[in-house]
From TrEMBL, chain A:
HAMP domain: residues covered: 170-223
Membrane spanning residue stretches: 7-30, 145-168
Name of the protein: histidine kinase
One Gene Ontology cellular component: plasma membrane
TrEMBL record, chain B:
Protein origin, superkingdom: Bacteria
Protein name listed in UniProt: Universal stress protein
Annotated organism of origin: Sphingobacterium gobiense
Length: 452, 169
């Protein structure tokens, strides 16, 4: 804010300096003009006076008065002087000003409000200085008036500049204070609050929008971190249950070597799955939502990921059915490549698919995939219990469970986690639902574009 | 030869099913698809001066509709040479005849049963073409079948249609 003020004061100073120099320039030019014009008029009168005095045309005085206007306090004088410059005869000239007179040519000078024009005239053996003096009415009256006028307008102008600048400053700063106040209200306990973008215009609108986007990222990152333990336990529980189940089953009675081998293989598979999930979750926790270069994103085929996710879901619960509609797969398989981490995407999709199966009486999820110009669309649809309309806005909150899910097991972690993962991949996840009829989850992910 | 095909539409994702039905059943020939919606221009002076087809079409085609078109284009990349929207702006018989002739359509797709969504000033192009005693270009009828599944997402209708292939179950 201090540097903001500094800039403002610098601007005011520049404006004031400009105004002052502008005024000074006007005054100088007009004065200059008034002087030179008046001297020109004096010169003319001096020449006429010299003609009259030295060439014996004294009775022609009327002529000059007829055609030339008499100046204010106009007086003519003639001074005769010797070779050393001493005055011999003086008619009406103030001898005190003798120093200012050029004895070898023409001079113009000013003493008080009186202007003088003198010139040397020589006759055999004699030297004269002939001159005319007069008061400059324009200088003494009009120019003074102009001077006062300019001074007043200068003061008013400076005041105007300062007042306007301060008003502009206030109107600039006010909305910024508004943003500051709004941002101050947002803390860790109410990270869901957002700035009201519509209240601001232009750059400030963009600023508010940027703040909100940043808050989105912070909120997601915050939630991810906060719920890491519950996320992890939810995700790690499933393969662990499967490992314990297989081990229990194989230990329940004596079995052949082959059967033990098979059981061990299944356990190893599940353990590997567990390891993958642990790594993925650790990565998620470490990086949050923020897309970081450390995340080793690679181009992956989304159809492959969907199929893997389905395998995972079926492995978790055999009663779950998944019907896949790949009829809209693009001809060009490059369009199915997205930039991402396969284990994370698989985790997100399998979470949604298993939710779809879980909340449907027929335990069936319908999955479809298509590619548009800039990305792929995955639809995961069920004909299950649906989500009450008024609760749709809360479904991304961790731990939130809709009011109609009491008879289903779950922690309310799967969807937020999936959404975080999709957001990490610059994608979008949206849910539409009709209570009692079913739910559709739409995932959009940008297609991988090789850097050319 | 590339066929220029008129496909009636109401600019909803659901109406793209007509395109899909047509593309899935037509032979392997290249097509240029023109999705035509009906829009009755009002006779006010402001409409006469201010109406531009591009703006009108841009307003009608929502994001999901455009995405649907892109999905179709990438699905039938080899078949669909081009795909764009257009509007018929009158029900006048001469206009229709000139429209079909001027745009040089070689095929017209007419769905057997499809309820077009009505918005202000819109009209059903398929019904109009069917009712006109005009010499239409080659008419390709498509069977739409029942649309039973409940829809939540607008793109739902696009996927999960009848006869959909299960690649994996």
């Amino acid at each position: 804010m201090r540097s903001y003020n500094k800039t403002l004061y610098a601007l005011i100073t520049i404006l004031v300096v400009y105004t002052i120099s502008f005024v000074a320039f006007i005054l100088y030019s007009v004065t200059n003009f008034a002087f030179s014009d008046f001297y020109k008029r004096l010169d003319l009168r001096r020449d006429l006076a010299a003609e009259r005095m030295l060439n014996g045309k004294e009775n022609q005085k009327d002529w000059s008065i007829t055609y030339l206007e008499e100046l204010n306090n106009q007086r003519e004088f003639i001074v005769e002087f010797d070779e050393t410059g001493n005055i011999i005869n003086n008619s009406g000239f103030n001898a005190l000003l003798w120093e200012k007179v050029d004895k070898y040519g023409a001079t113009n000078f000013k003493e008080g409000n009186t202007f003088y024009s003198t010139k040397l005239y020589q006759q055999p053996g004699k030297s004269y200085i002939v001159g005319v003096s007069a008061e400059n009415y324009f200088y003494t009256h009009h120019l003074r008036y102009l001077q006062n006028l300019l001074l007043i307008s200068l003061i008013l102008g400076v005041l105007f500049v300062i007042v306007v600048s301060l008003l502009v400053k206030r109107s600039f700063i006010k909305p910024i204070y508004g943003i500051i106040d709004e941002v101050k209200k947002i803390g860790s306990e109410n990270l869901y609050l957002r700035l009201r973008e519509d209240n601001y215009k232009g750059v400030l609108h963009k600023l508010a929008n940027t703040f909100n986007r940043m808050l989105n990222r912070v909120e997601t990152s915050f939630e991810t971190q906060k719920n890491f333990i519950s996320n992890a336990s939810h995700e790690l529980n499933t393969p662990l249950t499967s490992i314990i189940g297989i081990a229990d089953l194989s230990l329940s009675k004596d079995r052949s070597k082959e059967e033990y081998k098979q059981a061990m293989q299944k356990i190893v598979d599940s353990a590997e799955n567990l390891e993958k999930k642990t790594n993925a979750l650790l990565l998620l926790a470490r990086t949050g939502y923020e897309k970081d270069t450390k995340l080793n994103f690679k181009p992956v085929r989304i159809d492959q990921i969907i199929m893997d996710a389905e395998m995972t879901v079926k492995a978790i619960n055999e009663r779950f059915h998944i019907k896949t509609d790949f009829s809209m797969l693009p001809d060009d398989s490059m369009k199915l490549k997205v930039n991402g981490l396969a284990p994370l995407l698989q985790l997100a999709i399998s979470n949604i698919v298993s939710n779809a199966c879980k909340y449907s009486p027929n335990h069936t999820a319908y999955v479809a995939l298509g590619a548009f110009d800039k990305g792929v669309i995955i639809l995961i649809k069920d004909e299950g219990i649906g989500i009450p309309e008024q609760e749709l806005s809360y479904i991304y909150d961790p731990y939130f469970r809709a009011s109609n899910t009491q008879h289903f097991s779950g922690y309310g972690i799967g969807l937020p986690l999936a959404r975080n993962i999709i957001k990490m991949h610059d994608g979008k996840l949206s849910v539409t639902s009709t209570l009692g009829k079913g739910t559709t989850v739409r995932i959009e992910l940008p297609t991988f574009r090789p850097v050319s | 030869m590339i066929q220029r095909v008129l496909v009636p539409t109401d600019f909803t994702v659901n109406s793209l099913r007509i395109v899909l039905e047509y593309l899935e059943n037509n032979k392997d020939e290249q097509v240029e698809l023109v999705l035509v919606g009906g829009y009755k221009l009002s006779e006010s002076i402001s409409m006469l001066l201010g109406f531009t087809l591009d703006d009108h079409l841009a307003e009608l085609q929502h994001d999901d509709f455009l995405k649907g078109c892109e999905i179709i284009k990438s699905r039938f990349k080899d078949k669909v040479v081009e795909m764009y929207a257009d509007s018929m702006i009158s029900k006048n018989k001469r206009y229709i005849r000139n429209y079909l002739k001027g745009r040089k359509f070689t095929q017209v797709v007419l769905p057997d049963a499809f309820e077009f969504q009505e918005v202000e000033n819109s009209f059903d192009v398929a019904a109009l073409l069917r009712s006109q005693p005009l010499a239409l270009p080659q008419v390709i009828p498509v069977v739409m079948g029942e649309d039973e599944r409940s829809r939540h997402d607008t793109l739902d209708s696009f996927f999960f249609r009848k006869k959909w292939r299960f690649s994996y179950e």
